[in-house]
Amino acid sequence: MLKNIRNIPRYLIGSGALASVPSLLDARRAAARPGGAVFIIDAYFRDSARLSALGIQPDDPVRFVETEHEPTTDGVDALLADLRAQGHDAPCAIVGMGGGTTLDTAKAIANLFTNPGKSEQYQGWDLVQAAGIYKIGIPTISGTGAESSRTCVLTNYRTGLKLGMNSDFTLYDQLVLDPDLTGTVERNQYFYTGMDTYIHCIESLSGRYRSPVADALSHQALALCRQVFLEGDMMALENRQRLMTASYLGGCAIASSFVGVIHPMSAGLSVVAGTHHCVGNCITMLVMDEFYPEAVAEFRRMAEVQGVTIPAGVGARASDEDLQRMATAASLHEKPLSNALGDGWRTLLTPERMQSLFRRM
Ligand code: NAD
Ligand code: ZN
Q1: In terms of pTM, does the model score above 0.85?
Q2: 155 exposed, middle or buried (CB, 10 Å; 0-12, 13-18, 19+)?
Q3: Which CATH architecture has domain 10-182?
Q4: Model confidence at 32, in pLDDT bands (50, 70, 90)?
Q5: Contact residues of ligand 1, CB 6 A cut-off
Q6: Atom 40 in ligand 1: residue holding the nearest Cα
Q7: Regarding the domain delimited by 187-360, which CATH topology (the fold level of the hierarchy) does it fall under?
Q8: Confidence of residue 33 (pLDDT cuts 50, 70, 90)
């Protein structure tokens, strides 16, 4: 069945774009909603001079997001309850500024202000009923595509489900893409998160379910990744702008494409060992020679050119029981696995084969 795709309506991109946030908000402050703007910001920026560019007003609530753990349904529900308890029932805008963790938290909050109940009710596809609060996304690290995708990934520890609110309402209304912001990211982290774009695109271009626009976006995003990671310093300003562009394109492509073997395996690591999404993908990538031989060779070259190390030993340290749980968790991702390996994927990627791959990580 054909999907009716929606992408981000508006974005500003370029060095210095952050300075336009106050004027974007002025228009919202003057409009019908009486409440202030809610700022959801990566805790890294708690004492940063960057915040002065945002035009934060005295009555605007500012909440800092710790990124040690990826967003959870409970965490998002608690944040919303806290904002409501402080009298913020009808904000005129939500501003999310940070990496995927923060951008996803802000997206979830914006949906929950206008849709009753708890976040877990909306984990799935097209369950959000009403448009959320107008929201502005400001990525400060590039690669997940969370800025331009139609989901916000939340872990629900009660159900064991790591699943987003996949909805057109989850898309940001406005992006501010300012490559000045990504200059302070730690180098390894910059690589791991950047590689999420590369890996999404490799997986979707190798899959069975395809869309002509997603293919075109993925090809362009890959070309940009190759420039960033194979030529010169990945963190030079022009490469930061390229990676920001690649991440944006990759996020748009996710709306009409599927991942493959790497993301499910990475999710297995995440659920059992708590490994974060992007580093988990990189760890997985190193044992994917049988599935994506050329991409794995290129990935290794990129890491070498940039002098980046990928952590080793998470699988080797795991007990047999944990390896089994990892394989079980990975097997839940049927759609991407059949996208990569066909309907008979279970006979190709048996639990034993999965466990032996996890053991090598
Ligand atoms: P993150 O948001 O956890 O940030 C990684 C680290 O970088 C954090 O320590 C953060 O404080 C730091 N950081 C961010 N910007 C910085 C800056 N400018 N200077 C210095 N430090 C900075 O990581 P991420 O890799 O961007 O996001 C991972 C999350 O994204 C996961 O929760 C994953 O599930 C989610 N995700 C979402 C989508 C989607 O489509 N919504 C897609 C892929 C992944
Ligand atoms: Zn990803």
Answers
A1: yes
A2: buried
A3: 3-Layer(aba) Sandwich (3.40)
A4: low
A5: 42, 44, 67, 70-71, 98-102, 104, 140-141, 144-146, 149, 151-153, 164, 181-182, 184-185, 189, 193, 196, 254, 277-278
A6: 146
A7: Dehydroquinate synthase-like, alpha domain (1.20.1090)
A8: low
